[in-house]
Amino acid sequence: MTDDLDRSQTFDLPEGYQLLPWHRGFGRQVGPLFEKRGPDGITRAFRVEEHHTNGMMNAHGGMLMTFADMAWGAAVESDEDSWWVTIRLLCDFLSGAKHGEFVEGKARIVAEEANVYTVEGRIWTGERTLLTGSGIFKVIERRG
Asked: How far, CA to CA in Å, does 103 sit from each of 47, 70, 82, 97, 138?
């Protein structure tokens, strides 16, 4: 399903975004996903393509929650090799994203104790907020 990328998925990206190199597993199935890293943290993104949509050609709610998990969890990454797992994810749906829109997401850490982080996050397209919410993530050791 994600082997057939069209031009907008691979080349029409806002400045600073790069393809997130997930070549296997679940991230590959819901991709392509993009990210930019900067002094204010990691922002992740995806363009709503047909395989992300529901019957109304909007981003499926399950895709938006999946993306929130991936975007908000990135807030706890200390480097590109950080691994983390989700303990809890709460989302409030405020708007939808149409086929073709570029969706971005990011979170900020609001608490930390013993490698367990609480974050507050937002998912948006353009000026429109799609989701807000919070998550609890645990940083774990990288496995071979």
From this structure: 6, 13, 23, 7, 25
Q: What is the CATH number of domain 7-140?
A: 3.10.129.10
Report pLDDT digits (tens) over 26-50: 877 888 999 999 998 999 999 999 9
Centroid of chain to Cα 122: 10
Amino acid at 104: E
Model confidence at 143: pLDDT above 90: no
Cα three-residue angle 134-138-144, rounded to 5 degrees: 135
Domain ranges of the chain: 7-140
* Closest listed residue to residue 75, CA positions, set 40, 51, 24, 101: 40
pLDDT score of 1 more than 70: no
